């Protein structure tokens, strides 16, 4: 019967996942029946929990669509910029689509060739790199783009999207309120006379905060990683006689800058390309 075929296919799949033979039985008793009932109860709870989460996200999404008077709202992309005094600037783009955060679609942009600390130029570069191929049909078109920043950042976004011919995509700047507290965010929209401020308990605002906070987290983690690599490179390359190849040999041999810092002169001498005199120079520079 079809049921038997389905059972056989399911049993094969479960056996492959478990690494041993799995049998499917429809009639069990005693302790096995108790385990079966417990598994069914847990599965039902998980299903209800997932359904509840999805219902909550649907409420948030629909509330935001209504608040912004959008005809449709499925895909949201949010941008943030992170740097330390202009060093190692990174822009993040996170994606929310079909009621879920989509980490596999996130993108980071290492920003270069700008005046250090120029957030407007950084945002311009990130948006251009993200959407420059969209007019040709490459990539997914968002229904809403959130910009973590004020009127200036939003203005840059409007310029970029206008230049690309993508004026049909909704843009909203998410600015911190006067007191810079969560729940006080102001939503800036192109052409609007005044910001839109949603109640702190608004489901629409909660969705914006969820996506904005994720963009912030993703930008910061990318910035810290880039800054760490830059500082690792510069701290070794400041030493006369250490070029890219020797720096790479040192980091590979010791597993990173911390390992190099912990090494003594004898250990440093064992690295390919490091002479006794250079080993002493490295040790003295790092201590």
Descriptive notes:
The chain is α/β, with parallel strands linked by helices and 287 residues long. It folds into three domains: 2-67; 75-229, UvrC, RNAse H endonuclease domain (Nucleotidyltransferase, domain 5, 2-Layer Sandwich); 238-286, DNA polymerase, domain 1 (Orthogonal Bundle). The chain is 52% helix and 14% strand. The chain has helices at residues 2-18, 31-67, 119-131, 151-163, 203-237, 244-254, 257-262, 265-269, 276-286, and strands at 75-84, 87-97, 100-101, 107-110, 144-148, 170-175, 186-188. α2 crosses α5 (203-237). The longest helix is centred in the N-terminal third of the chain and has 37 residues, at 31-67. The protein is flat, with a radius of gyration of 27 Å. It starts with a helix and ends with a helix. The relative contact order is 0.09.
Beta-strand residue percentage: 5-15%
- Total separate domains: 3
Radius of gyration: 27 Å
> For the terminal residues, how far apart are their CA atoms?
76 Å
Class by SSE composition:
alpha/beta
Give the C-level CATH assignment of the largest domain: Alpha Beta
What is the name of the CATH topology of the largest domain? Nucleotidyltransferase, domain 5
Largest sheet: 7 strands, mixed
Q: In percent, how helical is the residue content? A: 40-55%
CATH superfamily membership of the largest domain: UvrC, RNAse H endonuclease domain
